[in-house]
Amino acid sequence: MKLATYSTGDAGKIGALMADGRRLVDLQAAAGGDPRFATMLSLIDAGDAGLAEARALLSDAERTGAHCDPLDAVTLLAPIPVPPQIRDFSVFPAHIVQAPTGMKKLAAALNGEPIPEIGPGDVPAVYKAQPIYYFTNRFSVVGPETTVTWPRYSTYMDFEIELAVVLGKGGKDISVEAAGGHIFGYTIFNDFSARDAQLVEMGGMLGPAKGKSFDAGNAMGPFLVTRDEIPDVRALKASVRINGQPFMADDCSAMLHSFEEMIAFVSRDETLHAGEIFGSGTVGNGCGLEHFTFLADGDVVELEIDAIGVLRNTVVRQ
Fold it and tell me: Which of 54, 72, 225, 235 sits a CA distance of 20 to 30 A from 65?
């Protein structure tokens, strides 16, 4: 199923996209007010039984047309507007080697020096040995079509196309073999980045902070697609358009670590919780930094990943 959190002008709802791609069935209304369908987190907590019931409600709506909202008449929100946790990884080798090159060029630009020609290096051994990640602000999540306001302290604004997984259940010391059963579904993640702020703070060797954490800095959506709809994550194609013009096209085949390996790694002596979000990190060539091309005021950024849809946001200066 393709699930969405959305608004019709009142409180948020969760819905399932119908086969025509033009309507959402209001799951809670269809279920007679069942609290399991009040939010995406409550549906996730309902487990396999809740998902089975949601599928049955969708099937009934396809037959009767009841409790449906036209997609073009609703506002799509982030699938989980306030997730319990967000961890953002970096598992695509092209980005791992090209992003530092972009940062060196940015440092030269900020110092008024000529932009050097630097070839990408090798993937550092630590990225191969284990999944590397940081925590980002779970309260700064927005959905598709939201205007992302440029932080005042930044001149170099950027985007990143990522695939994100949502955990369907928690656990501790989860094996790689069992980790797939902990995945609820997948969505698109645009990790907006203030690159000049990030450049400065990364010198402190504690990971990004204000380079990533600002209001509306984490865009997600448009749908949360259940794991049964995406049997092979590595086969997914990803692309970016800026103001309607193609920017990049690649796929997810180069991931150094699978989501199952990420889940197993993080859960070592640490309890994970349902609804947590793991970002894959930037798909290769999937950000401006790798091309040394940054966003301008009013740019419309469209991220597309097979089977999920298009996440579109506009970036504006304050």
Answer: 225
